[in-house]
Design a protein that fits this description.
alpha/beta; Rossmann fold; 8 helices; binds adenosine-5'-diphosphate
């Protein structure tokens, strides 16, 4: 299949829904027989960027390495789904410039919603002082200024969030439209 590579970069607070949306988008891509790869922040930190911490320098280095791999895959025609808090705007912009075919998804849920979900129990630990430098609690999160897509997961369903991502990828010509799929 002739496919244009693209990096779809999901950024947002812990618990905002990055992994959930990424997995659901991946299901859709699989069903449409697209070549894709997932770079999930938690998994990346156990492998590619093992040993890095959560200082600004280490967070930036984490994102730089993820961006490097995403670039290699993207230029070989793969749809790369990156799911990483990636709290700093400047490094996200650096990665965007390097990759070129880059679509930023701001997975936006209010802190209190993320904290209520507390999917991994990390907010509770951060509030108890057991984890330092936790994004949103005692470490910054710089929201994207002009993301291609914004998923408001505190108020929209997962299906709505997924549909936003797919239709944007279609309108940017990274995916054929579903109408075209039906024709072929
Ligand atoms: P992150 O990867 O950003 O840390 P997760 O995907 O692990 O976040 O967790 C997000 C949680 O929010 C999940 O429990 C998910 O079911 C829930 N959720 C509720 N609404 C949405 C939505 N519209 N999109 C994504 N996740 C949602």
């Amino acid at each position: 299949m002739n496919q244009r590579g693209v990096t779809v970069w999901f950024t947002g607070l812990s618990g905002s829904g990055k992994t959930t949306i990424t997995q659901a988008v991946a299901e859709k891509l699989r069903a449409r027989q697209h070549q894709f790869e997932i770079l999930d922040g938690d998994i990346v930190r156990q492998n590619l960027t093992k040993g890095l911490g959560f200082s600004k320098e280490d967070r930036d280095e984490n994102i730089r390495r993820v961006g490097f791999v995403a670039h290699l895959l993207t230029r070989n025609g793969v749809i790369v789904l990156v799911s990483a808090i990636s709290p700093y705007r400047e490094i996200r912009e650096e990665v965007r410039q390097r990759i070129g075919n880059f679509v930023e998804v701001y997975v936006n849920a209010p802190l209190d919603v993320c904290e209520q979900r507390d999917v991994k129990g990390l907010y509770q630990k951060a509030r108890a002082g057991e984890i330092a430098k936790f994004t949103g609690i005692d470490d910054p999160y710089e929201a994207p200024l002009n993301p291609e897509i914004e998923c408001l997961t505190g108020q929209e369903t997962l299906e709505e969030s997924v549909a936003k991502v797919l239709s944007k990828l279609e309108s940017l010509d990274y995916l054929p439209t579903t109408a075209m799929l039906k024709d072929s």
